[in-house]
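Sanity check

After download, print the first record. It should look like this:
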Amino acid sequence: MDRNNDINLSQAVIEARSLGRQVELSGNAQPLTILEGVSFAVGAGESVAIVGASGSGKSTLLGLLAGLDVPSSGEVLIDGRSLFALDEDGRAALRGERIGFVFQSFQLLPALTALENVMLPLELAGASSAEQQARQWLGRVGLAGRTGHYPRQLSGGEQQRVALARAFAPHPSLLLADEPTGNLDAATGASIIDLLFALNREHGTTLLLVTHDEALAARCGRQLRMHAGRLGEAVAA
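Expected structure tokens:
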């Protein structure tokens, strides 16, 4: 029995219900099933790792949970709101209000400085003190002296620190991280993960982390294992 049954679904920060994703192939070929029947819920303040080999459907699942892709079947609820009952603009607004992202490839805007990258989600949210808050966050991740640098002038570890500051700055209720150390060496990756979990504890954010790294997954409170597009038993760390 998995721990989904222990979560009060009315208090779940995010819930997947029978999510499926198929891709139509050319000709008369049968559709390719990437995800099938994925259901789980994550409660407030939990840290959950989605673990599986390359090609198991982890990143596809994360894209659906964020509303960046549309499922073939099933639904996603964020704070009790049906994500796919909203149009594309509505999903974007919900992401801006509730979700922070950390990507393997950092996804910083190259034409913006570190400060401007962190300011961007704050400005989109209408924060009146976006620059002040962004400076505070860059200081928190150890980059107070790099505010005017562009991504190309930063190391991979520094870029991911900027990405962490950007993700946490709007105070999201949910943080989605996709292989956050995938482009970093072991020592740099370890320091980034230490920082990620420290920030998560400080702010009580719900963390959903996609990784193939078993040691990283073990730092989460629960693990959900993907295999060939299906979800296995939830494992408490």
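If your output differs, re-run the checksum step. Summary of this record's structure: The mean pLDDT is 89.
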